[in-house]
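Hey, resending since the last one bounced:
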Amino acid sequence: MELTADEGPNPNEVTIQNIAYSGSGCPAGSVAQSLSPDAKAFTLLFDSYIVEAGPGSSHHSRKNCRIAVSMRFPAGWSFTVFSADFRGYARLDPGARGELRTNYFFDGHGPALKSKMAGPFDDDYQVRDTLIGDVHAWSPCKRLRPLTLDTVMSAQASGKQKALLTIDSVDGEIAHTYRIRWRKCQEGR
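The structure tokens again:
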């Protein structure tokens, strides 16, 4: 039985033990994190996730960031991410494109969601991944495994077109907010 969004373990007993990250979009020292007081969301702040394509590009056209979030919480609970917000800036000439793909998993398998953008576009953007139905990857009940978020952002342009995408805010950091849903473990899970 899945619990409603208002149910879950005592928030005081939920902590992020560690967040490990690697990839060209999140070099060492470029990610910060926080856990919400209600234990239903955590936020990752990035300051180096930029892709660019076209003449004079000073960044790579494709970057990735694999994030492994190790959480500690009371026995008898399992969690999943049910939505994620990505915010940033994109400048895409007519015909240029950008894409953000995220794969969510605990043991190597889980849903992958893509968001595509097309030029002309020159503005801030927000993308919300919403995992619905049975596509959720739930944490194992009998052992703690990190939640892995494998993100890839890319820019495509041809000829004289230019494409630039960032995952950042005005102050140079972006918030990726992940909403967490909890459920009680059942025998056999």
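Confidence is low (pLDDT under 50) at residues 1-6, 169-175.

Sorry for the duplicate.
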